Structures are given as structure tokens and as C-alpha cells.
Predict the 3D structure of the following.
Amino acid sequence: MIDFSAPDDFILGATLGEAVLSLQGAELDVELNRILRDVFGHENVAYVRRSFKANDEDVSVSRYVSPEAYYVLSGKKGVYTEDDLNKLNFLAELTAKLFNSKARLDTRFNDSTHAQLLQSQILDQIHESVITMDLAGFIISWNQGAEQLFGYAAAEAVGQNILFLYENEDIDGLCFPDPFLERGGREMEVRRRKKSGEVFWASLSLSPLCDASGEAIGVIGYLSDITERKQAEEKINYLAYYDLLTDLPNRTLFKKLVDKALLQSQRNNAIGSLLFIDLNRFKPINDTLGHQIGDLLLIQVAERFRLALRENDVVARLGSDEFAVALIDVNQDFHAALVAQKLLSSLDNPFQVNGNELRIGASIGISVYPQDGADADQLLQKADIAMFKAKRNVERASGSYAFYNQEMNQTIAGRLYLESGLRRALQYDEFFLLYQPKVDIHNGAVIGAEALIRWAHPTKGIISPVEFISIAEETGLILQIDAWVLETACAQARIWQDMDVKPFRIAVNVSAKEFSFALPARVSQALAHHQISSRWLELEITESMLMHSAESVITIMDEITALGVTLALDDFGTGYSSLSYLKRFPINTLKIDRSFIQGIPQDQDDCAIASAIISMAKQLKHKVIAEGVENSEQFNFLKQAGCDEIQGYLFSRPVSADKLSELLIKNFRFNVL
Ligand code: C2E
Ligand code: MG
Ligand code: MG
């Protein structure tokens, strides 16, 4: 009997176990024989692989180990001892048990490898690529489908993070573990990159990879290439939404885009316009020169329209010789007229088509959102009607345009008339300046004058700046106009300086557009050019300028005041700046807006506002001037409230330089008693 409490016997059991479990075939035979001889200490024992033969019993004892193997003790009793027999019995029994266990393990092992083999064969037979990864996105398995699709062998892919297949832009916003694990599988269309670098469309469905307890331990991804389907879809999409001849959006897409943009405009309270364009004289060209020439002409027209528009504007071909343009989020309806003009101008030059020089014009109808309609359909319909209006009045060779709304037609026409007139006015010197005295409230002395522009229009007479300054600002002409005013005011100051008039400040209005980093240099140049002291000049700016970017505004202001030119804040009270906010700006004078003076003394609110502005301005050490003072009640109230200066019809309307000269020469004082 082996005594397992004895270390030697325990080692024997372990050695035997290890031999049976780890070796097989001839190696096992040799090891078992070695162990037997070691245990018995003689050569009469052996491990034999053979079937049982009865006659051997005479000379030996056999003990079953497995159906094909026995332990054999050679010789008759006497050659082996009783102890030998016991050892043989026990060893045979132990070895047989070990053989049995091993056989059972082998069966199980074979079953599972077999199953695995089957599975990987199935996976490899699937055309789709099947990839498994852990929860951090590291690839665990990669089938043949994946090898074929991506071009990476399993050995290259397994162990890498799945992100290496993503197209760069997809990586942002990706998270592992994916939230889908909680919700179950899902399908999507994604873009992935092949080993060759090619990016393709794939349909991807994901499902969780779970362990035996049902816990998600990873993700199984099934991918298939859908590039062809995508391309087909794109093609169908293109056919449905684009005009094949010109590559422009067609009517369907146009309406979709417009409706979408209008929704946005609605939220921003913005306006928009639709232009319906119908080519003039296209039909005769098409009929006489043939469709091929007609088509080529349309392509060129489309190209010119596209070039004339901004990127955000939508241009479409509605059919035959009809086009449409959508201008969304435009600040002024006026803009649509400018665009219409631009489109017409783009047709001015003749077209060269297959050796033919062709001229073509257009009629453009304009509808405005929201007043003419709420959606693309309504707006298109109105613009179409307006187009017929335009057809009737062919103003120029390239055509004309008309608004659906009659009133709009008139105001726009008026504005455009003024706009073209303004350009001419600059050229032909049609502007002149009037000067309105600013009067010291205590002694009636003229302490300054505001230069106010007037336009001597050749047919309409004198036009007020109220009518043309805003148009000049929209069209950018204001820069030239304000530059002219500054020059003219300085030239006038020089005349007064030469007349030995005591310097007083000539106030020049500066539009917000002109208030830029270039202004200080322009002011100093004007002073230098006319050789006048900076004591002659003051700039009037409006509150809205302070709102933009305070820091850069302060820099510009500092540069101006450093020249010795003072700043006055015009139309004060109409903007939103609080008085304390004003402290930050180097402003000399606040000009209370005329609208608050008008109601004095009857309107309590106006009185209160004017008084408040005056007293707070005093605390902040600003001077205060009231503009638009027309009567003595207003004057008395303002004087009482502590106002420093007065400007208004009570003392003088804006007058010519000559008229003002007369007063100045006499050292004239207005009656302030
Ligand atoms: P503003 O700078 O506030 O000029 C004061 C306006 O009030 C002037 O109108 C002036 O004639 C008018 N006014 C003065 N006293 C009285 C009065 O007692 N009663 C009434 N009812 N009105 C009075 P004007 O000359 O028509 O100028 C209007 C606006 O046009 C100016 O307002 C100014 O913003 C702008 N403007 C005038 N000249 C220029 C210029 O040269 N450049 C720029 N950018 N804007 C100018
Ligand atoms: Mg002013
Ligand atoms: Mg004003």
C-alpha cells in the first residue's frame, strides 16, 4: 500500500499523475516503465501494451490499466514478493483511474475545440465582416470578411483599437462603452477607412458580446460595404433635386431650401426675398439657332448668376428659361433690388456660344418675406406675378425688375434714384454746408457751430440729410461724404482764422461707419492741410458707436482728443448707454437729443429726463448742450436745470458760412435774458 503521508509515496502519486496527463504514446510508455522500476527496485516489472493473454498467467501477473495496456510482474511467485504484488495492484488501479480521467478531459477538450473550429469556419464563410472588441474598443477577433473588406490580416488587426479604422472626423464624440449596450443592438451607416487609405460607406450593426453570466464584456460589430448603394442613392437624389443641364438646384430642392431657411428667419425675425427671373428673348434664340445652342446659353447664364451672388444665396433653375434666387436673412428689403440690378448687369455683356454672339435680358419679380407670403410656394407665386410687372417696363437692354408690393416699388425706386444721384453729387460738388450756432446759455456768445450738410439736387432742390444719410451709410458712400464735410469745415475754419475770428469749435458729424482706426490720422491731416489749430474742431459721434467694441473705440477717441479735438455725444438719451458707462470715454460734451427738448415744459417725462441728464452729466464733469431749442420756455427750463449751451431755432437756424461770418465779425451775442 502506498502511504501518501510519506513524502516519497506522495511524490510517486504526483509523478504518475503528471506522466499520464502530460505525455502520450511512446513517451508515456517509457516514463511509466521508468516509474515502475523505480518503485520496485528490480527489472521484473513492466508496462506493456497488449491484449490480455491467459497463458502468460503462469509466469507473470498482469493488472489492467487500460483496455490496451497492463502492468506485468514477471516470474512465478517467489520471484516477486507479496509486497510487489500489492504495489502492482495499487499502481495499476491508480494509473487506470488517471487514464479514465484523462480520457474524459480529452473528450471535453475535443468537443470545445471542435465547436470553436466550427464557429470560426462559419464566421469566415460569412461575407460580412464580423469584428469583436472589448469594451474599450480593442479588437478581439477579426474574421476573413473583415480581412477582405479592410485589407488588414487578423494578425494586424487583433489587439488594435477599433478607432484605427475610423475616418478622422468620426473619432470626435465617440465613447466607450457605447450607450447602446444598455439599450440593445443598433444599426447605422458609417464611414470607415481601408488599409489602402480608401474611405467607404458601410452599414454597421452592433450587438453586445456577453460572458456566461450575461454581462456585456464587449461589442460584436457586423459591417458590410454599402458604397454602391450610397452612390446609387446619391445619383437618385441628384436626379430628383438638381437640374442636369446647369447643375443648379431644381424647383423641388429650391422650395425645400427656402422653407428651411424661412423657418430659421422666423426665429431670428429676419427678412428674406425671392427673385423670380425669366429670361427675355430666349425663345427666339432657341427656336432659330436650335436647342443645343439654347442649352449652352442657359449654362452660361446660370454661371453668370452664380458668380454674381454670394455663397449663402440660393439660385435654382425652375424650368426652361426660368431661374429663382433666394436671399435669406437680409437686413433690408432694399438689398433685393441691388441684387436684381447685379443679376441684370451680369447679362450686359454678350454671350459667345459656338461662334454666335448672343444678347439676352431678364425680367425679375421680387417678393419679400414675411409681408408677401409665409412659405416658398406663396413667395414664388408672388414673385412670378411681379415678374410680369417687370416684363412690361423694360428699362434697359438687359431687362428690369419689379417688387410684388407696389409701395415697395416706389420707395425702392426713390432710393435707387437717390443712390445714383449721390454718386453724381460727389462728382459735381452738389453738397454744401450750413452752420448752426451753439450759444453760451449765460452770456449768449457764439461758442461753436455745427456743420450740417445739404444737397443741392439739380431737379429736386435742397435735400435734407435725413433723406440721404442712411442711404449713403448703406451704400458706403458716407465715407466720401464725411471726408468731404471734414475738409470743407476745416477750409472754412481757415477762412475764419484768416479773418482773425476768435477760434470756436466747428462740430462735424461723424457717422458710425467712419469711426475707425483711420479717423485720427484723417483728422490730423485735415488740420495740417488747412493749417488750423485743433481748437477749431469738434466731432459729434452717436451713442451707437460706443456699443460696438469699447476698447477699440476708446483707443480711437484717445488719439483724437490727444490732437486737441474735442468729442461730443450727439442725440444723447436715445441709445442705451448709462451715464456711469460714459465715464470710460474721453467725451467732452453731451448733447441732449431734440426729442426730449420738444416736450419741455409740458411733458413731465421729458422734463425729468432732461434734468436728470444735466445733473448727472455735471457730476461726471461733462458739459451739456441741448439741441432743438425752439422757444423761451424750453430755454428757461434748461437754464434753470443747469444746462451750459443751447442750439436751436430759438437763436438761429443753420445758416450759410457768410451769414455766420457777419455775426462773428461783430462779436454778436444772442439775447439770453
Ligand atoms: P444732428 O446731428 O442731431 O443735427 C441736428 C439736427 O437738428 C439738424 O438737422 C438741425 O437742422 C436740426 N435742428 C437744429 N435746431 C433745431 C430746432 O430748433 N428745431 C428742429 N425741429 N430741428 C432743429 P439736419 O441738418 O436736417 O440734420 C439731420 C441729421 O443728419 C443730423 O442730426 C445728423 O445726424 C445728420 N447729418 C447732418 N449733417 C451731417 C454730416 O455732415 N455728416 C453726417 N454723417 N451726418 C450729418
Ligand atoms: Mg449732430
Ligand atoms: Mg442730434
Notes: The first helix runs from residue 7 to 22.
